[in-house]
Amino acid sequence: MSNYFSMEAFDYNDIQLVPNKCIIKSRKEADTSVKFGNRTFKIPVVPANMQSVINEQLAIWLAQNDYYYVMHRFQPEKRADFIKMMHDKKLFASISVGIKDEEYTFIDELVKQDLIPEYITIDVAHGHSDYVIKMIKYIKDKMPDSFLTAGNVATPEAVRELENAGADATKVGVGPGRACITKLKTGFGTGGWQLAALRMCSKAASKPIIADGGIRYNGDIAKSVRFGASMVMIGSMLAGHEESPGNVIKIDGKVYKQYWGSASEVQKGGHHNVEGKQLLVPYRGSIKDTLKEMQEDLQSSISYAGGKNLQSIRLVDYVIVKSSIMNGDI
Ligand SMILES: NC(=O)C1=CN([C@@H]2O[C@H](COP(=O)(O)OP(=O)(O)OC[C@H]3O[C@@H](n4cnc5c(N)ncnc54)[C@H](OP(=O)(O)O)[C@@H]3O)[C@@H](O)[C@H]2O)C=CC1
Ligand SMILES: Nc1nc2c(ncn2[C@@H]2O[C@H](COP(=O)(O)O)[C@@H](O)[C@H]2O)c(=O)[nH]1
Fold it and tell me: Where along this sequence does the record place binding of NADP(+) (predicted)?
């Protein structure tokens, strides 16, 4: 049993990273690329595998442009064709699965048809579970060459157990999401201390971690990297784009897009075990520009870290400033 009472609880708002002497002439020299599985991606950012964030068209564009993506699992019958379509285009396939009985049949069917995705993500709310461990073992047995991420979890114990079961990466974050009401409805999760949870989990991890949920500013990506993330999963900040699946809504001359949680009533089509809500996020133009801006801001972060690549961010000092980083600015 871990003792969390003595743990320092802090979140993205509570931390500032401490600059080091700059060693590059231009921020353009800073390398933001990250290896995840067998591939190298432009930035350590992945749009959330939610139906309000990603669709097939966006997945194709992301894969074509060296961004990591994870397709959602909410149209299960389309997943086999999706893998085939991506492979026909010579692109990598990255899908999500759940843990219900029919998912075992789905994995068997993929193996039978020789449709092996390069990346698989086991995506459930409470990933520290024997049923997730069983699914990890099943997938690694049937598809040993697929890079398997499992989540979501909140503790070092969970990270270790999923890694030991065979997961190639774990996804950390229970309840910090913008569309999340898990923290309110169940009293559990990493809402308000996601960054501290990430720190704790990454100390225990021997494989990559995806930090999932709670990113509100581009600088939070660098903070996630500092505290051990190899990848950062983002929902709300990537949901308001031209390419995003949500409907456009206009109110008083302002333009928004719908963003809904994967455990919301909208997604589930019913009101049992609802742990998510729908909200509006401001329309932000093309996702291409937002991803480019994230890359440029990360290049600046690397420069402030006094290095040339993401590794330099992992080594910087930090200060806990307890919700005062806005300094009255907003
Ligand atoms: N990151 C986060 O904080 C959260 C994310 N989500 C997202 O919502 C989507 C739906 O998630 P989920 O409901 O897990 O998917 P599923 O509906 O596939 O449920 C997962 C399975 O685990 C069982 N289960 C047992 N305990 C729990 C529990 N506490 N929470 C959820 N399932 C449990 C479920 O059975 P039964 O339904 O009968 O209980 C079901 O068989 C996913 O995309 C998930 O990532 C949802 C909540 C939190
Ligand atoms: N508790 C819930 N969490 C959810 C739900 N749908 C998605 N999610 C998680 O949120 C992140 C995205 O977070 P954001 O802060 O960037 O918006 C996503 O990747 C999931 O892990 C939900 O219905 N309930």
Answer: 209-232
**Pocket perturbation via mutation, ligand 1, pick of 101, 124, 183 by most ligand atoms within 8 A of CB:** 124
Strands (DSSP E) contained in 154-288 are 169-172, 209-212, 231-234, 248-251, 254-260, 278-282
Domains identified in the chain and CATH numbers: 22-315 (3.20.20.70)
* Ligand 1 atom closest to 98 (CA): 18
- C-alpha–C-alpha distance, residues 144 and 44, integer Å: 24
Give percent of the chain above pLDDT 70. Answer: 96
- Of the candidates 154, 149, 184, 148, the one whose C-alpha atom is nearest the C-alpha of residue 263 is 184
Ligand 1 centre distance from Cα of residue 126 (Å) = 6
Predicted TM-score (pTM) of this structure: 0.97
Q: Which residues are near ligand 1 (CB < 6 Å)?
A: 98-100, 123-126, 152, 173-175, 177, 180, 182, 213, 262-263, 273, 275
Separation of CA 289 and ligand 1 centre (Å): 33
Which ligand gives the minimal distance to the CA of 150? 1
Read off the pLDDT of residues 246-304 as tens digits, 9 standing for 90 and up.
Answer: 999 999 999 999 999 999 999 999 889 999 999 999 999 999 999 999 999 999 999 99
